[in-house]
Amino acid sequence: MLQSTENGPKPQFTAPTLNPAQSVKLVTAPIEQATIGRTVLIKGEISGNESLYIDGRVEGTVKDHRVTVGRNGVVAANITAREVVIMGKVAGNVECSDRIDIRSEGSLTGDVISQRISVEDGAMLRGSVQLTPADQKRDKSSSQESGKTNAAAAGKSN
Fold first, then answer.
1. Cα–Cα distance between 30 and 105 in angstroms, integer?
2. Residue (of 73, 67, 41, 74) closest to 55 by Cα position
């Protein structure tokens, strides 16, 4: 015989309680990234403070926070960014305040100025590379301060 569950006891819902000993996972906002698609051609200057993924064609200049040139990306532009990753083709000078990474399928024809560089096997790089140490600014300011300190000490000893 079939019984109806409508009149029967209903399951009770209890809210889970947090145990203070358990770690709480924080959800962070996803990193914003602008994307230039495969069929898009942009001529001119691109600038911004978010990450940029280029899978299409860009001609001109690119100034951004982080620039990634995808496998289908073709860039004929000078790039200025904190970090650059090249998986496609770039013709132009690249200036990075942190690092440039040229992946195995990537190619760069142009000069590079960066603190760090990574070139994988199979990647192509034609141009000059200038590496600037991260502590270059600190060294200059500390040497100027030590020179002032030495001059002051020399003046006091007389």
1. 27
2. 73
C-alpha 74/C-alpha 106 separation (Å) is 10
pLDDT, tens digit (0-9, with 9 covering 90-100), for 3-20? 555 555 555 655 555 555
Residue 77: HSE in the Cβ half-sphere, 13 Å Cα cutoff: 26
d(Cα 25, Cα 2) in Å, to the nearest integer? 46
Cα-flanking dihedrals φ and ψ of residue 56, to 5°? -110, -145
What is the Cα–Cα distance from 147 to 158, expressed in whole angstroms? Answer: 17
Per DSSP, which regions of 31-149 are E strands? 33-36, 41-47, 51-54, 57-69, 74-86, 89-91, 94-102, 107-109, 112-114, 116-119, 124-126, 129-131
pLDDT (tens digit per residue) in 13-48: 555 555 555 555 555 555 688 999 999 999 999 999
Closest CA to 63 of 22, 29, 34: 34
